[in-house]
């Protein structure tokens, strides 16, 4: 099944490069391009792509607000958004996470990781580049004390805390299974349990909870 992607970036050279990279990947097709966030929202609502790939810093409407409009907590039929950025401002990336983005990559991530992020978002998963996660953790670990996140509905088990820490580092289910020496189905069970206990809709919200509570990663 082909994943239909909408690309939004105010730089024509970047859009062209992303289209060429994505169209060359098996099972991915770019169905539209937007030069700013407002146009991206309009096109996304009319084309209903499977995944949107947004830059953060765009004119008219930035990538954070465009993400919130399409994937925010109040959106009835959200469209998965992956943010691809030069990572100039760490707080922008964190804000986009809060706005509902499903994935984060740097613009030099490479074709393979870009394709993985698009496919992950399309199937309801999330991929956050590990270097971005590390930057976020380092930035907010040195900031003022975090506001306490809501307590989980039930206490987390030791294994669930290990899985949560791995999710917050951007690891996939397969990578978590290999790292913790457990089966893939067991990882999926733990992830589902964590989502229920934390009231998280996806892995990104799980990572945010881990970040806000400063759990070791």
TrEMBL record:
A Pfam entry, by short name: GerE
Modified residues (4-aspartylphosphate): 55
Gene3D superfamilies associated with the record: 3.40.50.2300
Alphabetized UniProt keyword annotations: DNA-binding, Phosphoprotein, Transcription, Transcription regulation
Residue ranges constituting the Response regulatory domain according to the UniProt record: 4-122
Gene Ontology MF terms: DNA binding
Domain HTH luxR-type residue range list: 149-214
InterPro entries, per the entry: CheY-like_superfamily (IPR011006), NreC/VraR/RcsB-like_REC (IPR058245), Sig_transdc_resp-reg_C-effctor (IPR016032), Sig_transdc_resp-reg_receiver (IPR001789), Tscrpt_reg_LuxR_C (IPR000792), WalR-like (IPR039420)
Membrane-traversing stretches: none
Protein name (Swiss-Prot/TrEMBL): DNA-binding NarL/FixJ family response regulator
Organism: Agromyces ramosus
High-level lineage: Bacteria, Bacillati, Actinomycetota, Actinomycetes, Micrococcales
């Amino acid at each position: 099944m082909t994943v239909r992607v909408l690309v939004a970036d105010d730089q024509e050279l970047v859009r062209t490069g992303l289209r060429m990279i994505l169209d060359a990947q098996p099972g991915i097709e770019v169905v539209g391009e937007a030069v700013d966030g407002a146009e991206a929202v309009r096109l996304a609502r009319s084309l209903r792509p499977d995944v949107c790939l947004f830059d953060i810093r765009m004119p008219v409407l930035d990538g954070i607000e465009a993400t919130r409009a399409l994937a925010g907590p109040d959106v009835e039929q959200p469209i998965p958004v992956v943010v691809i950025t030069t990572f100039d401002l760490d707080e922008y990336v964190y804000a986009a996470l809060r706005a509902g983005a499903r994935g984060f990559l740097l613009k030099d991530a490479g074709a393979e990781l870009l394709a993985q992020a698009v496919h992950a978002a399309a199937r309801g998963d999330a991929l956050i580049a590990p270097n971005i996660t590390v930057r976020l953790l380092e930035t907010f670990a040195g900031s003022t004390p975090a506001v306490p996140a809501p307590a989980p509905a039930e206490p987390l088990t030791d294994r669930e805390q290990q899985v949560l820490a791995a999710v917050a580092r951007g690891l996939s289910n397969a990578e978590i299974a290999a790292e913790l020496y457990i089966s893939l189905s067991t990882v999926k069970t733990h992830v589902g349990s964590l989502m229920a206990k934390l009231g998280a809709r996806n892995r990104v919200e799980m990572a945010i909870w881990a970040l806000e509570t400063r759990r070791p990663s």
